[in-house]
Amino acid sequence: MRIFMLLNLAFAFVFFVVVSISNAATLPETIRIAIVKNSTSVTIDGDGILATRENGEAVAFETPINVRPGKDCVVVNGINYRGLLFSAPSVVYVNSKPYRGVAEISLVDKGLLVVNELPLEDYLVGLINCEISSAWPIEAIKAQAVIARTYALNRKESRKNALYHLESSVIDQVYDGCLIEDSRARRGVMETAGEVLTYNGAIIQAFYHSSCGGKTESSENVWGASLPYLKGVDCQYCLTAKNSAWEQKLALKDIEDKLKNAGFSVSGVKNVRAGIRNNRGRLKSVLIDSARGETEVAGDQFRKAIGYGVIKSTNFTVKVSNGEASFSGLGNGHGVGLCQWGSKQRALDGFNYAEILSYYYPGTELKKLSEIR
User: Fold this and answer.
1) Distance CA 7, CA 2 (A)
2) Cα–Cα dist 210/301, whole Å
3) Does residue 313 contact residue 229 with C-beta atoms inside 8 Å?
4) How many C-beta atoms lie closer than 10 Å to residue 276's C-beta?
5) What does R_g of the chain's alpha carbons equal in angstroms?
6) Annotated domain spans of the chain
7) 9: confidence class by pLDDT, cuts 50, 70, 90
8) Positive or negative, the Cα torsion across 351, 356, 362, 367?
9) First to last CA, the chain
């Protein structure tokens, strides 16, 4: 009898271990996205909201719930909490926007931080219509799903000890919750489920941008890091896109003010000139003539100071007349990796998503996560 009982216990233990391992293996990959930063107030709402404090204890609140920063805490209805976690059967509304998964609120140096933690694949479905349009050819949608998944997992690994893995803006990938999800976005994600781009067996840094204006850029020219799959390729496919060519006029005084705000020592700006170009045709530097002499500003720093939405790329010419600078440029974004509008045109031309990706990231391999883990 004793041997029988011991055998039963042993079987039960083995069964528990096997089930635990199996369950762990099937848990969905999750991602943590910063959706609100440095806020003085956050409103939480939704049907069936469950709130828990940092120790997992449930807290009863009436919705909508207004959360404010306190001293080393967050505050609801005058009561202090170290942090709060909100979930719901469907979605959690954060400042009136719906999000899948959970919303975690904590206090950081400059105010409230809200992190949306959710399954990676759900995140990708919400992202598609923020980055491109689900009305695009399905092969372009699938290409976007793969590079967004690849980018997210690369960042998750590099920021595994941080409070969150990704920003929800152009700093990383644009994401605005699940409000603009649709069936085509979900199809593109589902048909590429778990697929990532790899190089020598490792997940790549899958940078991408809106349009390149004829040539994609080398990562070395932008960030100083030479990556074999980000050397730049010729791309005529985006040139028919509306945002491929752009023009902008700015008063020299406005340029001066923006450069000063960015920390550059300029005063009485008289001229703006293109400096030398790199091997991909983009400006390495912009020359500013002012009462203090000539100031050389790196091309990407000039764009950052004036505004990414104003100077849309570093591939531009500039002419100055009557106190005004006229810019004419090609492309939108840093130019590294996949060109989104080029991807759309290649899909229209009959290329599938794997062919599109191999063109913009030469030497990479498309693999399932299960193959590299």
Assistant:
1) 9
2) 19
3) no
4) 10
5) 25
6) 30-119, 121-238+335-372, 245-330
7) very low
8) negative
9) 44
> pLDDT per residue over 306-333, tens digit each?
999 999 999 999 999 999 999 999 999 9
Q: What is the pLDDT of residue 372?
A: 87
Q: At residue 293, what is the residue type?
A: G
Element (H, E) at 167: strand 166-167
> How crowded is residue 160: how many other Cβ atoms within 10 Å of its Cβ?
9
Contact residues for 360 (Cβ-Cβ < 8 A; gap 6+) = 208, 216, 233, 235, 337, 338, 339, 342, 343
Q: Which residues pair with 106 in a beta bridge?
A: 83, 113
Do 337 and 209 meet the contact criterion of CB atoms below 8 Å apart?
Answer: yes
Whether the per-residue pLDDT at 7 is higher than 60: the answer is: no
**How many of the other CB atoms lie within 10 Å of CB of 261?**
9
Q: How far is CA 133 from CA 129, 141, 142, 314, 331, in A?
A: 5, 8, 12, 25, 18
Structure tokens given for 21: 């391992």
Cβ atoms < 10 Å from Cβ of 63: 16
Contacts 24+ apart (CB under 8 A), 275-278: 275/299, 278/218, 278/221
Helices (H), the chain: 2-26, 120-131, 138-158, 183-190, 219-223, 252-261, 299-306, 340-348, 353-360, 369-372
